[in-house]
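Limitations

Structures in this collection are predictions, not experimental determinations, and the ligand pose is part of the prediction. Treat each record accordingly. The example that follows, with copper (II) ion as the small molecule, is included so readers can see exactly what is and is not provided: the inputs are given verbatim, and the output is the predicted complex.
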Amino acid sequence: MPTEPVTIHFHGMVLPNKMDGVAGLTQDAVQPGDSFTYEFLADDPGTYWYHSHQSSSEQVDRGLYGSFVIEPKDKMYDREYTLLLDEWAIGDNGRGGMMGGMMNGMSSGEMDTDMFYNTYTVNGKTGQYIAPIEVNNGEVVRLRFVNAGYRKHFLRFNGEPYRIVGIDGNPIYNTKPGTEPLEIGPSERIDVELTIDNTNQWLIESVDDNSAAENMVVKVIPKNNDEDNQSKTTETKDDVTENGTQYMDPIFKEIPTPDIEYDMLLGASMGMGNMEFTINEEVFPETEPFEVKEGDIVKATLINDSRFDHPMHLHGHYFQIIAKDGQKLDNPMVKDLINVKPGESYEIMFKADNPGLWAFHCHDLNHAAGGMMTILEYQGYYSPFDIHENGNEPE
Ligand SMILES: [Cu+2]
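Predicted complex:
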């Protein structure tokens, strides 16, 4: 018999507020034996994932999540695989081994998770148990990576060139093939495309600076299938820009004047026996909400004043990254999450066009549970639900 209440949040999907699945904000947590039906239009192709948003730091940590892929009408690839990355605290030395973690993680922005987690997985399996990627030589393969964990991961493709074709559920055009390790932040989704022209088996493997990383390894097994060794995709069908710049469809072609601006100073400090993770020096639910009215153009400046990475996720909206460390970006990036590393700052902008109460929080969910969460609140929107009542614990 289940004993814990749950919800489902469809991460990255822009849904009506009532379908967002945040306990105490958009619904009451669903008690054991009760039910709640999520209903929405799946009309925006891309790679997403879903997870509980009730006691989420613990429930997601223990695996209450899955991938959620909306297929395009016309596929531009021969084969696809979805790969969920995660890390786990297993056995006596999980959530322990403090010193090793401290030493390793000191410069990585992840000294906390470095000492908690000792097992890396892909689709819930580790090392030799991870299912291989089987392809025919010559095929174009789309790999949909979802980072369901609280640490960033770096994957090396054995020196094979890959192209990034999707970020956070949005297409990205005209990216040049690269061979550098691919960085995937917590909760990010990155779609890459590979053209297989190597008949030898090779490995996609983690190059994280962590001893558990050697078990995050996926075999790529090309087969020479005579009947079907010619790709259906003969050329890159992505739109290619004339001037050769990669781009995502922007929210704002020209950067508008914001109607309202907020600063989010992301901090960490030692609280009463626990680490506190703060926004403008407050912990949730004491954090100041973002108050907006429908139609506002909102600008937020996220500043990381701590020694930890903070992958900040906004529900119900995509935002455009305008600037990093005070420097304007030439190519707009449109995302639902930005991993703000120690000392970094980002300016983001979005349109307040989806009324409701929306969580805006760190997706290292241990940090969210430690206070790093606030609410984007539309003027005049009423919610009958209460956080930290009726068993509602969104963090
Ligand atoms: Cu954080």
